[in-house]
Amino acid sequence: MTAETQITITPPNLQTLSLRIVGVAPYMQAKFSAKAKQAMMTKMEAGSVASKGTKRAPRDFDADFRAAQHRAMEGWAGVPAAALRNACIDACRMVGFQMTRAKMSVFIEPDGFDAEDGTPLVRLVADEPEKTEMATRNATGVVDIRIRPMWRTWAAQVRLTFDGDQFTATDVTNLLARAGLQVGIGEGRPFSKSSAGMGFGLFRVEGGMSK
Predict the structure, then answer these.
(1) What is the pLDDT of residues 154-173, one digit of tens each?
(2) Where does the pLDDT of residue 54 fall: very low under 50, low under 70, confident under 90, or very high at 90 and above?
């Protein structure tokens, strides 16, 4: 006979805040389109003969504009939930929080998913974007024109879930606030990994409530 062992599993103390954010600078988006992925795959499959005798198709700037947007299956435009979460994690270095702990404790709940690639999205509260045209340099140094959607006026209702044993509601609200004013989201944000940014993608936290 063996003695029975009783095991108690304590669930994590997950709590959720619903916080409204309002843009204080334009938000510019740059989704990596399905068409661009397919073009890369086709070139890779062709191997060394990919560029020999290949006719270059004319560029459709309107198609580039549409393809750069994250659209949910229902048709609305959204911000990748990961962009907001990563901004909160990046903001940890400003207040002495452990970034590795935040990775396991701070999450952004999606309102839906990208119709093409399934990216979790937070719904944008905004009008339709305007088409922007910007000159930039590719990795090879060649100048290119990038077409991007931009929302000058925008907002979102963010549902932020966190581990209450690691952070307080005040902690994560302040993280989101710092993320909005010091990190930013999207193209041209201040805390870009590749540049000092253009001041885009900044937002403030207007308020919220716990759930």
Answers:
(1) 999 999 999 999 999 999 99
(2) low
- Collect all residues with Cβ–Cβ distance below 8 Å to 110 and sequence separation of at least 6: 81, 120, 121, 122
The neighbouring-strand residues paired with 14 are 163
DSSP 136-165: EE-TTS-EEEEEEEEESS-EEEEEEEEETT
Amino acid symbol at 128: E
Instruction: Return d(Cα 80, Cα 173) in angstroms, integer.
Output: 19
Q: Strand, coil or helix: what is 15?
A: strand
Kind of pairing, strands 106-109 and 155-163?
antiparallel
Distance CA 107, CA 169 (A): 13
Extended beta strands in the chain, E state:
14-23, 27-28, 78-80, 106-109, 112-113, 120-123, 130-137, 143-151, 155-163, 203-210
The packing angle between helices 81-95 and 169-178, to 10°, is: 100
